Amino acid sequence: MKKSIVMLGAPGAGKGTQAKLMSEKYGIPHISTGDMLREAVKEGTELGLKAKEIMERGELVPDDLINAIVKERLARPDCEKGYILDGYPRTKAQAEFLDSVDGVNFVIFIHVPEELIVKRLVLRRTCPNCGAMYHLEFNPPKRDNLCDKCGTPLIQRDDDTEDVVKNRLAVYNEKTAVLLDYYRNRGILYKIDGNRPIKDVLQSIVQVVGE
Ligand code: AMP
How many C-beta neighbours within 10 Å does residue 66 have? Predict the structure, then answer.
């Protein structure tokens, strides 16, 4: 069966970390709209120019821009056996658009209490080269501030600062949390406790999605 998977959860819940591991396990692509947008910003494309300031404030990029890049990405041959969407959909309009493009069969909701989120994000560090993620306390790199995988110096994302994180959380509660009911009503929402070690969270996801 094709595995069309959506990762849901507040920023910092661990969607990207789990999506990367699932992508390796299942051999299907990890599609992060945040990564695609950051790439566009770095390259200075038209999309990147439109998205840059919106992202710096922790607001959402307009639905039609995001929908277009996701539709194009899902049409590529590597998505035939399935995919893991991370950071999309983020609004009801995006979820409805996704329904019109393809059927989702698993929605993995990683739940982490809100009071833990800010600490998770401000201590997060990212590799600008390979995208690997670390947490200075829970998942630190082996060598001080260098990526374990490729040795590149780690950075803090521009939007992982306390003020922007608080806004991202408010935006999540206002615009994205409605998707929990949207998918719960269809019987495809699976709630996973995200406040546990990375490998335990993965194990719970595998119990849902299958070996
Ligand atoms: P993320 O890496 O998923 O936390 O996304 C980083 C930022 O990119 C978000 O705060 C938004 O500004 C933008 N973004 C990513 N995905 C979407 C989406 N599906 N809809 C609108 N904006 C998005």
Answer: 24
